[in-house]
Write a structure and sequence with these properties.
95 residues; 5-stranded antiparallel sheet; two-stranded antiparallel ribbon; 16% helix
Length: 95
């Protein structure tokens, strides 16, 4: 079983998105969603090629993410696959 990478969410962590051409390409552009979330002090992140297009900024047990997805529900699911212990705070906004 893969435990993912253990991170301390009290420290500042920025993870840039890769493979952005996947959702910026013509003819179909995938909507991009901003999600704010909270985290426990120590958690695990499961980064792989399927979710490498998600950008994260985490600090003081709080995070912001930019998630490409066709729907708000898919964006939330993709974030939960990346960080299962995340708790969504506020509205999920389309950018």
């Amino acid at each position: 079983m893969n435990l993912g990478e253990k991170i301390n969410t009290e420290e500042r962590l920025v993870i840039e998105a890769s493979r952005v051409s996947r959702y910026l390409g013509y003819p179909r552009k995938v909507p991009i969603w901003k999600i704010q979330f909270s985290l426990p002090k120590i958690c695990h992140i499961f980064r792989n090629e399927v979710n490498s297009d998600i950008a994260l900024e985490i600090e003081s047990m709080f995070g912001n993410s930019v998630v490409p997805a066709l729907s708000k529900e898919e964006a939330e699911r993709r974030l939960k696959d990346l960080i299962p212990s995340s708790v969504i705070k506020g509205k999920i906004l389309r950018l």
